[in-house]
Amino acid sequence: MEEMKKLSLVCEQCGGVLQVDEGKEVVACPYCGNKTLILESDDVTKERIRTTAQKEVELEKIKADDRERQRLLEKEEKQEREQQAKEFKKSKWFKLLVVAFLLAVICAYYCFSKGRTLAGILAVLQAGCFGVAWSMGMQILKEKKRFMHILIALIGFVLIVPTFRACSAAKEQKDVKEVKWSIIVLGEEIPEPDSKKLEIHINTSEELWIDVVDTDEEAYYEYIEACKEAGYTVAPEENSIGYEAYTAEGYHLRLGKNSSEEEMSIHLEAPTVAEDLQWEKHDISKLLPAPKSTMGAFEQEATHRVAVIVSETSEEDFEAYKKACIQKGFEADATILNDSYSAYDIEGNKVGLYYTKGNSQMRIVLEYPEETKESEEENTSDKTVVAEPEATDAPISIDIPAVDDDFIDPEFKEMMDEFEAFFDEYIELSNKLSKAEGMEALELMTAYTEYMEQYAATMEKMKAVDQEEFTTAEALYYAEVTGRIYLKLAKIE
Known about the structure:
Order of helices and strands: EEHHHHHEEHEEEEEEEHEEEEHHHH
Radius of gyration: 41 Å
Strand order of the largest sheet: 9-10-11-15-14-13-12
Number of helices: 11
Strand content: 15-25%
Structural class: alpha+beta
Distance between the termini: 93 Å
Helix content: 40-55%
Low-confidence stretches: 1-8, 168-173, 372-378, 380-404
């Protein structure tokens, strides 16, 4: 080893011991402060340089390994994203989002062009959700969490009801003239709305059904509060669809708001005048058991249909009567809900039981098969003898029979039944969707979208019905079906 030029571990000034740190070339005495230069031998310098070089080489190798691992990781992530994008592109979900996005854009344009700003904004948000979900599914945008694009798409589908209703509501502004409230027969039983523009559907002492035009959201909710102050607080049901309640006297009120139009619907039913039913004196007693309560009224007694209101009926009485009807053989194709029951017997007769807690009433509807009605009519026609007119100089007069008020057109009845079945399917789907998770939710959302595509066509078909041509029986059946649909919608989970 080469001799060191200078090496000292003792202070030249005071003789104190010096503590030399590795790598330092100058050291200061902790006693007197004298600074001493430390010189290494050539071998020591070479060793230090070699050691330092090794450390740098090892560090560089570690960095290179890290870069390679990062490159491989990024390559794997890229391949995985490409594979996910391919799978997504082949799925039905891909096509659904594309179609949903285009429909939302069209709906937004339509709503803004019609001045429906709120609906237009909702449609834009919906289109944004579908666009972002599609971009994430195609791996254009990075997902922070797996399946986040599904969650965002579901948010878009949640907005589909208000936007679709706004987009499909092609009704032009109604030209409705102002009407004096004094002509409303049941006008004293409810508060008078602020708007005087009324579209009257039914205006009798038993029932009122009107649409109040030029009624915004604020006026609608103010009217609900006015009805509550007027006593409509018995068995109330209030939700996004509307408000429903009874008075202590039994008046039944239903309020609704058209979200796409500034329009409020008012449906008021007067309480049934109860009297002794005398059940055994009516033909319905041949097929159905007598209810516990003997008070009520027969709404309709026709060759094809009987409708009875039974008053003073508790929930326990309703359940007991339902079981009694089942024992009578009405159990085929049964439809069971909380407050209703319908089924057929072996001869094709159909019974419908409907219970309303607000006024403790049970409604019984018995429908005979159409074949029975037709055969009865045929038998009657076979037995009818048309007498030839006697010879006379006076002109022959022919009496034209009036329209049978008890008659219901079979095609009209079939259409109304299909209309109710359509909403039954919607309610069932909505209830399933509210509880579904994961892939089941996706499948149900696809079915929900298909349902909404049918909604516009169904509603247009119903709008084409000319209510002015209804017979009394048809008007009652129309009110019955729409009323049941309203109650079912109000109970969506």
